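Co-fold these.
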Amino acid sequence: MSRVAPLSGFPEFLPAGRVVEQRVIAKLAETFELYGFASVNTRSIEPMDQLLRKGETSKEVYVLRRLQAEAESGGDTGFGLHFDLTVPFARYVLENAGKLQFPFRRYQIQPCWRGERPQDGRFREFWQADIDIVDRDELPTHYEVEIPLVVGDALRSLPIPDVRIHVNNRKLSQGFYQGLGLSDPMGAIRAVDKIDKVGPAGVAKLLSEELGAADDQVKACLALAEIATDDESFVDAVRALGVSDPLLDEGLDELATVIATGAEDAPGLLRADMRIARGLDYYTGTVYETFMDGYGRLGSVCSGGRYDNLASDGKNSFPGVGISIGISRILVPLVSEGKLGATRDVPTCVLVALPDTDSRRDCDRIAAKLRSRGVATEVAPAAQKYGKQIKFAERRGIPFVLFPSSGTDGHEIRDIRSGEQSTVDIDSWLPPTTDLRAEIQRTGE
Amino acid sequence: MSRVAPLSGFPEFLPAGRVVEQRVIAKLAETFELYGFASVNTRSIEPMDQLLRKGETSKEVYVLRRLQAEAESGGDTGFGLHFDLTVPFARYVLENAGKLQFPFRRYQIQPCWRGERPQDGRFREFWQADIDIVDRDELPTHYEVEIPLVVGDALRSLPIPDVRIHVNNRKLSQGFYQGLGLSDPMGAIRAVDKIDKVGPAGVAKLLSEELGAADDQVKACLALAEIATDDESFVDAVRALGVSDPLLDEGLDELATVIATGAEDAPGLLRADMRIARGLDYYTGTVYETFMDGYGRLGSVCSGGRYDNLASDGKNSFPGVGISIGISRILVPLVSEGKLGATRDVPTCVLVALPDTDSRRDCDRIAAKLRSRGVATEVAPAAQKYGKQIKFAERRGIPFVLFPSSGTDGHEIRDIRSGEQSTVDIDSWLPPTTDLRAEIQRTGE
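Predicted complex below.
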């Protein structure tokens, strides 16, 4: 194993960063389960034809080839690594429709892969946490209200900068562009979706040159994209643009309900934002993008929406609504900038010092007693001088060192941070709860 | 999404099976952390030259190609999916040696991939749980005793059939073959490793034809492979074969210590077994294979050993000892045969019944109160007749249904298994601890 180097786009954490990732994933899972979402794990690969259904992403897929099949036909397996958790989930629902209970609420926390050039906040291998609710044939709109509130609860329970979920509705955008007389409303949605990259002037150019929009139509589209409010006042602002369409009315109603409920249940979490479009074709109702305070450069850290036609086998359709949280996109910058760390690098709470080599078995028994009460314990690797053994604990952040007594005096435990040392009853001693395990530490703020 | 079919070799669980997998993974992680092992997650891919270092496995690797690079040179990235967690871990240790504290104890629970033909207990994508202890330059032998005891503790805490770890020592085998005058002791180890596949006669043929062993040498090799004891008596049995060699003595001593300690600390867990060889070249000391009662056909469900030369950058070497638990190999058969299931399919403990559509917001507030005390709760999807809402809970195994009161009487909660119903104080009510979350259920025994 000669050459070893980090691979661009494939982030890996040192143990302290991994503690952060572990605790965040556990907290997300806990919150999702409190809302009744069941855990699902899918295989990492999907047939290429499934992966390529959403045209836009085809360039990003890693295709699998079996090494041993090199001679025959390139060895392609016809499979690729999934680039999100939505496509695999839609396939899972169809494959197991007869065995699942609908509406089906699931969460899924797994790595995804994209073969694209890595850039700030974009990786080739990254962890996502998704929640979705799918139903058979019809999906009530109240789930479009619930999903961002669940995600808000989950994200706000994490030690990360504040987040705000920007919400729009496809019916609103599409109805508006229709009512405006644009011939390709979906094309307009895709053009407006580029506003952060190319600016209003760039969008105007796309609308007029590629979609043949007239000047006043372009102006109305840009005016719509500027509307963003924390309450239902966006409805009047949109109406003031003078466009009418039944689909627009439906979209305004639905979005108003989402925003009103959010304002009541989770003040400051949701914002109606007509600029949010989501590039993907399959969204049909509410859409979400999420921005983290001070990390606008990362783009949306958590996106999703309602889809009606993603999972369908011809006979049945399974409309759904869901959001993906970009775990790596959120955590990799926070950890690498030193904003988040761990209280220690190891799970170990107590190091049992080793007085001499022959005492190892006795020390193992002391450790076993502590472990039986849930206290992570290891025995020192060698019978060095106690000073060296204490250093061993210090370097890892292990808070307690136990010095075994050979007599009947009882063992002594030292808190090596304060230096306090006392004789303890090994059958009942417990550390303070906060020292029991490595926890996330907010630093450098 | 038209064609959907399960893929052979890529097992996926339905929600109940996933509960089993989740609980097992959590229990393993908990046990490993009690012994001070830190969690590490590595990226899923490694450079091909790293993956191919262990010649034997080259045929099994999935190579990654970028779809968009099709035109140029086939698009191969030079990377493949890891086929175990040992190779990535060795690379991780070398890459981060300056930032890690040694001895370094880590556990790692991730999927691995092998492009091989799927068969009973062998998959193309499968989860493994590894623990390893690596040190810099030298590794004390007491870790070769500790590792199988940690794994034994972890496996015995799971609701799976009893396991037995069979232990041998490479020094013992190699010393024996050397002392016997065989010119290629490593070749003999590989031949004996095939004994379960080709039988003693097949091994005899390999030894004589490929390694030029004389009849009495073949006989001695087969006699050694037959020795298996639960205590240290294997030492005398090996000595009785009349072979002597300093390396053999060392191996006998080391194995005797492992077995003696195991007999004391974990009776019935370890067995000295001279037939255990492990095919891989890199083992240098104690080696382990594990068999699950009644599932011999799966082969070893948990294997490993000591290695001295796996991670080395020329200047420093990082000897280690570790074991991999085959999570999928153990769980997929137990779940698919119906031996392990879950107490329910969903995390939800309480379903809040919905009296009418307008009450949804009130019901959401009741649910939020229960969630704030850690009770997983969802609100019924629609204001159907209560009988239908109870059915909804029954089909998912949700134990409690809450019927909201509009007045000041307090809400009623029904345990739908017993039919018992009572008025409760929503600000203090808690379900029995055993109902709090979905748990593993042993069934069909």
